[in-house]
Amino acid sequence: MLEVSNLATGYNQSTVIPNLSFKVAPQEILAVVGRNGMGKSTLLKSLMGILPLKGGRIKLGDQDISDYETHRRVRTGLAFVPQGRMIFPNLTVLENMMTAVKGAVSLSELDEIYALFPVLREMRQRKGGNLSGGQQQQLAIARALLTKPKVLILDEPTEGIQPSIIKDIARALKEIRKLRQISIIVSEQVLSFVMDACDRLLVMERGQVIHEDLRDSVDSARVKQLLAV
Questions:
Q1: Taking 80 as the threshold, does the pLDDT of residue 104 lie above it?
Q2: Nearest C-alpha neighbor of 77 from the set 169, 26, 147, 165
Q3: How confident is the model at residue 229 (pLDDT cuts 50, 70, 90)?
Q4: DSSP string, the chain
């Protein structure tokens, strides 16, 4: 579904990721894990076109999107939930969701979203800034889903969220994958969330993948050691 080949990116003259390649299979949930400053967010921003490539290619299905601007990547099938969620605090829950689409949204689409995140139905007229961190994260995911993505990308979705809601988000991602038949990429530091939600993980250090494993064969002690170094 997504193929990244020899990707290089960074900020201005600084190269954070020198040469990175990986693939995401259809309907796979891939976790990119690592400590702060290891290149996870930089990678996701480059996938979305927020950061330009210094080299390499990105393919979505059979379409090369390497030179696409961000809005064109969204139309092609990428959706991004940024770190910190970035919802609009002065808009209602429903208004926040509507910012993702042009024109009307069908009742069936909204019902599908509300089935995934029941709290959003209850709070649809509440201002986004009055939601808890976990509720805002659910809102940010719902907003991204209304763009009908082929690949959903989330940057640190558990940041600042209580453990019970983290489990809810893990369940929701698996349900989204099943319902929408999409692939999901998650950057994360919480290993328990990764083990609950994801099929495969990549461990990043200094812009490179230093370890890769399927969830069912993950050596948790080894991964924790890599994250603690």
A1: no
A2: 147
A3: low
A4: -EEEEEEEEEETTEEEEEEEEEEE-TT-EEEEE--TTSSHHHHHHHHHTSS-EEEEEEEETTEE-TT--HHHHHHHTEEEE-TT----TTSBHHHHHHTTSSS---HHHHHHHHHH-HHHHHTTTSBGGGS-HHHHHHHHHHHHHTT--SEEEEESTTTT--HHHHHHHHHHHHHHHHHH--EEEEEES-HHHHHHH-SEEEEEETTEEEEEEEGGG--HHHHHHHHH-
Q: Do the beta carbons of residue 1 and residue 152 sit within 8 Å?
A: no
pLDDT confidence band for 177 (50 / 70 / 90): very high
Query: Is the per-residue pLDDT at 103 higher than 80?
Result: no
92 strand-pairing partners: 127
Long-range contacts of 109-113 (CB under 8 A, 24+ apart): 109/146, 112/179, 113/142, 113/145, 113/146
Q: For domain 2-88+149-228, which CATH number applies: 2.60.120.260, 3.30.470.20, 3.40.50.300, 3.40.50.150?
A: 3.40.50.300
Q: What digits encode the pLDDT tens for the residues 54-99?
A: 999 999 999 999 999 999 999 999 999 998 888 999 999 999 999 9
What does the pLDDT read at residue 15? Answer: 92
> Amino acid letter at 222?
R
Higher model confidence: residue 225 or residue 170? Answer: 170
